[in-house]
Amino acid sequence: MKLDKNFFTENIKTLFYALVIAVIIRSFFIQPFYIPSSSMEPTLLVGDRLFVTKYSYGYSKHSFPFSPPILKQRVFFNNPSRGDVVVFKTPVDNRTDYIKRLIGVPGDRIQFIDANLYLNNSEIFKSKIKNKTKIYCGNRSIDVYRFEEKLSNEKKFHTVYSKDFTYQNSDAFIVPEDHYFFLGDNRDCSKDSRFLSSVGYVHKDNLVGKAQFIFFSHDKKIGSIFAFWKWHKSIRFNRTFDRIN
Q: Which of 131, 148, 194, 222 has the smallest set of CB atoms within 10 Å of its CB?
């Protein structure tokens, strides 16, 4: 059977258009992300796959694949709110994606005193939900207390602290202009804005988008995604389409 040359041409065109459409959707509207670490437990678990809206805070070069230098500054900027769960590029390399909870906005004063979080000299209210529960820190299982915290804008979410409260006290962090301060919900097992040499304050241009909901979750500790006979245990069906608070 003789194939028309147009057959190959049309297929190449189709693939090209599909790629362009995918890049546009990923850059301007919504992008999937995978959670590889336990720093945001209990809100996000290792193996969660979620959608992040790219338009929530406007656009910068980091909105696009490989962060091309096509925008000198953020455009159509919308201020994020305290308590948002945000994906951002780490300031250290402007390449690695992190996901954390926004705690401090420009001008805020943040400090840990006796393992309690203070925002602008007021202690963040937290109520204990569970004692002696376990959660992951990397590959280790650690004993933690689980709390519900409430920010000044009434945003509520769950956090966990090690039973030993390993992060006791800190200097005061003063958030610079156009920067933000992020914490992981797994407070004693998170590399975040407290560690200035590795993350520190995050410039608004480094914001990638707002985490919205989980579309799939798989516990690889139970079995590979290809082990279909374990799906009834490894796939967390109860987390499918959960909104991220």
A: 131
**Which of the residues 37, 38, 39, 63 is marked catalytic?**
39
Owner of token pair 């082990």: 227
What pTM does this model have?
Answer: 0.93
* pLDDT computed for residue 4 by the predictor: 61
In whole angstroms, how large is the CA radius of gyration of the chain? 21
CA distance 143 to 45: 16
- Nearest-10 Cα torsion for 93, 38, 237, 163: -160
**Residues near 218 by beta carbon (within 8 Å), at least 6 away in sequence:** 47, 49, 225, 234, 235, 236
Is 63 a residue of the active site?
no
> What tens digit of pLDDT does each residue of 99-153 get?
999 999 999 999 999 999 999 999 999 999 988 788 889 888 889 999 999 999 9
Choose the catalytic residue: 61, 89, 100, 126: 100
Is 13 among the residues known to form the active site?
A: no
DSSP assignment letter at 204: G
CA distance 95 to 89: 6
Residues listed for the chain: 245
**Residue 185 in tokens:** 């919900």
Map out the domains of the chain with their CATH numbers. Answer: 5-239 (2.10.109.10)
